[in-house]
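Lab notebook, design round three. We kept the backbone fixed and only want residue identities now. Task for the bench partner: fill in a sequence for the structure below.
Input structure tokens:
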């Protein structure tokens, strides 16, 4: 198949980049190698477990736009061959376009556009599926939801905010894996603390001020840290979402971002997936809602958190977490 330059301007857009291999895809090894090749073509923007479904959906879309009957028949044979593979399901009563690019836990007869729509509405099942996508794939799904013109802008902003939090968790996990928990914790603490300062008193003595916890952190200030490393492609993909520029440049998220990073540094999480860790953090926030209501707002209503509220939570967070441990 040829890649449509208008949809995905790959460097090799004039070349044939994908076709059915001349070996049986019923063989697991063949299928695994073919899936890897397709993942490269799609720049790893989708889950490896569903990249065949993405390819099938692409073929089904191309069938309707191919003027040549001969080429159309070839694509249909390609579609039929793929549809017979284990784990691929194309109901006869449904349009081939309904093949989804989402994880296998999501019923693959649900259109990706509707999955993204339900995620924006707050459906936990679909939201987790959408958030678990690599950033580039997530952006595509958000654009699908936005194209329906019935999703409120604030719903899209909140979903984008959650994916941004997942991105920071992913960066933290990556640093922990590469250099250890203590190093990652020190790097995060460095971001959360204001620079130390020193002053000279009357008798020539220097007084070094202890680092102060920051209660307001802008997204732009994270540039060139390990959370947004130089040349981060993830952030450039986020900017493809119309509403992300507002999130990135406004000061409305400064207090809630400071609170989230303090939570990330303080909560001992056990999961290895960003979406699971986000759920763990939300669980802790729910347990502490009687003393720190603003903690729940970190995830559900981020712009409602102001700096005094963030300062209060940050000052008491460690003691609250100790109380949870004692109660358990």
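Proposed sequence:
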């Amino acid at each position: 198949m040829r890649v449509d330059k208008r949809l995905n301007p790959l460097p090799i857009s004039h070349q044939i980049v994908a076709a059915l291999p001349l070996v049986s895809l019923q063989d697991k090894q063949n299928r695994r190698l073919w899936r890897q090749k397709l993942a490269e073509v799609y720049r790893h923007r989708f889950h490896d477990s569903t990249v065949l479904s993405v390819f099938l959906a692409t073929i089904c879309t191309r069938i309707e736009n191919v003027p040549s009957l001969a080429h159309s028949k070839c694509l249909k044979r390609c579609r039929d061959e793929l549809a017979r593979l284990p784990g691929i399901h194309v109901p006869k009563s449904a349009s081939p376009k309904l093949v989804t690019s989402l994880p296998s836990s999501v019923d693959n007869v649900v259109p990706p556009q509707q999955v993204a729509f339900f995620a924006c509405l707050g459906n936990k099942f679909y939201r987790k599926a959408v958030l678990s996508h690599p950033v580039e794939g997530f952006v595509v799904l958000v654009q699908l939801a936005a194209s329906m013109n019935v999703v409120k802008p604030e719903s899209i902003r909140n979903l984008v905010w959650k994916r941004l939090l997942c991105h920071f968790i992913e960066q933290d996990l990556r640093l922990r894996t590469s250099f250890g928990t203590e190093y990652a914790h020190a790097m995060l603490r460095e971001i959360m603390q204001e620079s130390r300062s020193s002053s000279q008193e009357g008798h020539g003595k220097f007084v070094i001020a202890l680092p102060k916890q920051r209660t307001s952190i802008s997204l732009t200030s994270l540039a060139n840290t390990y959370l947004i490393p130089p040349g981060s492609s993830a952030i450039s993909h986020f900017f493809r979402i119309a509403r992300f520029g507002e999130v990135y440049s406004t000061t409305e998220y400064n207090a809630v971002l400071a609170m989230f990073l303090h939570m990330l540094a303080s909560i001992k999480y056990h999961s290895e997936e960003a979406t699971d860790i986000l759920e763990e953090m939300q669980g802790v926030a729910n347990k502490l809602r009687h003393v720190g209501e603003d903690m729940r707002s970190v995830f559900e209503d981020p712009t409602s958190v102001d700096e005094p509220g963030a300062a209060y939570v940050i000052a008491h967070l460690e003691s609250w977490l100790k109380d949870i441990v004692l109660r358990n």
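Keep this in mind before ordering anything: DSSP finds 14 helices and two strands in the chain.
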